[in-house]
Write a structure and sequence with these properties.
The complex is a heterodimer of chains A (112) and B (559).
Chain A (H helix, E strand, L loop, with lengths): L3 H24 L2 H8 L5 H25 L2 H25 L5 H6 L7
Helix pairs in contact in A: 1-3, 1-4, 3-4
Chain B lengths: L4 H30 L2 H8 L13 H11 L4 H7 L14 E7 L7 E8 L9 E8 L6 E2 L6 H12 L7 H23 L16 H15 L1 H20 L8 H15 L15 H14 L6 E7 L7 E6 L12 E4 L5 E4 L5 H14 L5 H36 L3 H29 L11 H22 L11 H25 L3 H7 L3 H41 L1
Antiparallel strand pairs in B: 1-2, 1-5, 2-3, 3-4, 5-6, 6-7, 7-8
Classes of the chains: A mainly alpha (112), B alpha+beta (559).
Chain lengths: 112, 559
């Protein structure tokens, strides 16, 4: 169990990991990739984004578990997932271009 | 009746959602506020704006405070009909003294129960309550309304309809139907995963409202499901099936006696007077034992049972701040010697599940991030229900306008009442709390009662306004009350923040930077954010109203 600054930092990391993971999961869906990149995604990119997305969410859970008692960590993680999904949806709606950076980070470029 | 299962589900979802949605809206919104009930109390009672304190020393502080307590004349009068003979001038036989605090409470709640001589039911106790400053034992005014824990919280679970627990039954039934609405909603939703991240505000109103309804419902589905479920479980064990106390009354008594034999904690007084060993030493011993089991050691609840009697014992319970499960890990001491009589055994697996589920809902833990996420979950639920109402109206208003049906007009006005109207009522309460003088003329209602009356008056006014302005809905146009009430909300939220500054001197620069005090700063910042959001909403609604009017005048011009 961690306290103080270290706990706050890890929780922040958990939120970021959940957010990035959720965004990758969203990008692995044809319609959202289309919204962000303007083209259809390749099969490889979809698979890669799904794996990376799952990894991001798993990292989020691991960080939560590091900070709190397991029963609490799971709740924090599930609620942070809801928040992440809301933020990703709002970004896709009003600023889809911002997610290009995350696609690039995942090594998935738009096909010319 | 229905051609398909999905249609049946849609019927259930629509009509139960509509009728009980109004109740659920209040449960979700005031539930979200109750997450920070103690902090709202601090905002509302400026004398108590101090930092949370651990349980103070019994010997130095609690004992004198307990000794000063006596039931109020009001409580004595209420008890009188249940007693054979006159009431004593002073209640001396203390059945129990207890003190309760949480990691967020700067004030300490004290409870004292006394035996009543010649009471018709010998088990009945008369109670006295007090709130003290845990730093010096000073008595704090107890008659002021604790707006968060004393009003928003009961409103959340029982609508403050106390008569025969009616409110609790209504909210419980709504929670049950909420579970049904969630299941039927998931069945109706054809593209749960494909449209998980979808909101299209540019599409037709019907489509974009449905997007928002689905989004707010699906994204926080675990929250909605578990809070409705655990709320029901808490109700079921306390109100709906308290089997032990109702049907099985005789058995309950026997069980208590058996339990007393098993745990060694005496059920009744021995009627032999005895002294009291050092209670602070008992508390220290309890903390040592918790520490050995790797548990955080703050005391949440301290109980002295059968005070002054040879059968007296002292129970020390932990404030469960480090885990979700609501557990006390009580350790019980013999009052006269200070020896440990009994230590609560670890819970059975079933009890552990139940502790986890109730703890999940009641939130005694210390975790500010999770608290804010719960607020987000609650507000998402409220948004889900509100968009449900709007979808209902949008879907029908064209048809209703053609046939002259007033249905969508009424539902729309009720939606205004439960969305912006509820905000107006809440803000009325906060503003009135800052405006009413400390002391009111004796003939008036108490300050707290007056605050509550004005809360309902504010809500009633908002409702009247929503209905008076609702005529355009019957002609397929928007109700201007949405816009007007959004404007009112933003003005009132700003006014509440300003009034807090004027009446207490606590402004945000002080509460955030120079003398940080987050409970008050948090409420103020939340109010400012609400004001900003309401302003944006008002701006958008105004633009839509303008477009509506333009369309209408062009139509009139064509005709």
């Amino acid at each position: 169990m961690l306290e103080g600054g270290a706990a706050a930092l890890l929780l922040f990391a958990a939120i970021v990991a959940n957010g990035v993971g959720m965004a990758w999961v969203a990008l692995s869906m044809d319609v959202h990739w289309q919204q962000v990149q303007g083209t259809a995604p390749s099969r490889g990119a979809v698979r890669r984004l799904r794996v990376l997305g799952a990894l991001g969410l798993a990292c989020g859970l691991a960080a939560c578990l590091r900070v709190d008692h397991a029963s609490m960590a799971v709740l924090v993680w599930i609620m942070a997932l809801s928040a992440a999904a809301l933020v990703v949806t709002c970004t896709l709606t009003w600023r889809p271009g911002w997610l290009k950076a995350l696609a690039w980070l995942a090594g998935c470029e738009a096909r010319p | 009746m229905f051609q398909s299962f999905r249609q049946a589900m849609a019927w259930l979802h629509t009509w139960f959602g509509l009728v009980l949605g109004f109740v659920l809206m209040a449960a979700f919104f005031f539930g979200a506020l109750s997450v920070f009930d103690r902090e709202i109390d601090r905002w509302a009672i400026p004398e108590t704006r101090i930092a949370p304190q651990p349980m103070p020393s019994y010997e130095k502080l609690l004992r004198p405070a307990f000794e000063r307590m006596q039931p109020t004349p009001l409580a004595i009068d209420a008890m009188r009909p249940r007693v054979d003979g006159p009431m004593p001038a002073h209640f001396d036989t203390v059945d129990s003294w207890s003190a309760y605090t949480t990691h967020r409470d700067p004030v300490l709640a004290l409870y004292a129960g006394y035996q009543v001589p010649h009471a018709k039911d010998a088990e009945e106790r008369i109670w006295a309550y007090a709130t003290i400053d845990p730093r010096d034992g000073r008595l704090l005014p107890d008659e002021q309304l604790k707006i968060g824990s004393g009003f928003f919280f009961p409103l959340h679970y029982g609508l403050t309809l106390d008569w025969k627990n009616l409110g609790i039954w209504i909210v419980g039934f709504s929670a049950l139907m909420m579970l049904a609405a969630l299941v039927s909603g998931v069945i109706m939703h054809r593209k749960l995963f494909r449209e998980f991240f979808t909101f299209r505000p540019g599409k037709a109103p019907l489509r974009s409202v449905l997007d928002l309804h689905n989004l707010t419902g699906v994204v926080a589905l675990p929250f909605h499901f578990f809070f409705a479920l655990t709320g029901l479980l808490i109700f079921a064990s306390t109100y709906y099936f308290p089997l032990g106390e109702t049907q099985l009354h005789g058995l309950h008594e026997r069980h208590e006696q058996a339990e007393a034999r098993e745990t060694g904690l005496p059920h009744a007084r021995a009627d032999v007077s005895a002294g009291l060993a050092n209670v602070d030493a008992m508390v220290a011993e309890a903390q040592r034992r918790w520490h050995e089991h790797g548990k955080a050691g703050e005391v949440g609840f301290l109980v002295l049972q059968h005070v002054g009697d040879a059968n007296g014992y002292v129970s020390v319970y932990r404030a469960g701040t480090d885990r979700i499960a609501l557990v006390g890990d009580g350790i019980h001491f013999k009052a006269s010697t200070g020896a440990v009589i009994h230590e609560d055994p670890p819970a059975t697996p079933v009890a552990r599940v139940s502790e986890f589920l109730t703890g999940l809902h009641l939130q005694h833990f210390r975790h500010w991030l999770l608290r804010w996420l719960y607020v987000l979950g609650g507000l998402t639920g409220a948004a889900c229900i509100a968009t449900g109402f709007i979808f209902f109206v949008e879907k029908r208003k064209k048809q209703h306008a053609k046939t002259g049906n007033q249905g969508s007009r009424v539902v729309d006005a009720l939606a205004v009442t439960t969305v912006t109207g509820m905000l107006i009522a809440t803000l009325t309460l906060l503003i009135v709390n800052r405006l009413l003088p400390e002391r009111l003329p004796a003939a008036w209602a108490s300050r707290g009662d007056l605050e509550v009356y004005l809360f309902w008056a504010g809500w009633a006014l908002a409702m009247a306004h929503a209905f008076v302005r609702s005529a355009p809905v019957a002609q397929e146009r928007a109700n201007p009350a949405w816009y007007e009430q959004c404007r009112t909300v933003s003005a009132m939220a700003l006014a509440a923040v300003l009034l807090n500054w004027i009446t207490t001197g606590d402004h945000l620069i002080k509460t955030v930077f120079t003398h940080p005090y987050w409970p008050v700063a948090g409420v103020d910042l939340f109010l400012l954010a609400s004001a900003a959001l309401a302003t944006v909403a008002a701006h958008r609604l105004k633009a839509r109203l303008g477009a509506d009017q333009l369309a209408q005048s062009t139509e009139a011009g064509h005709a």
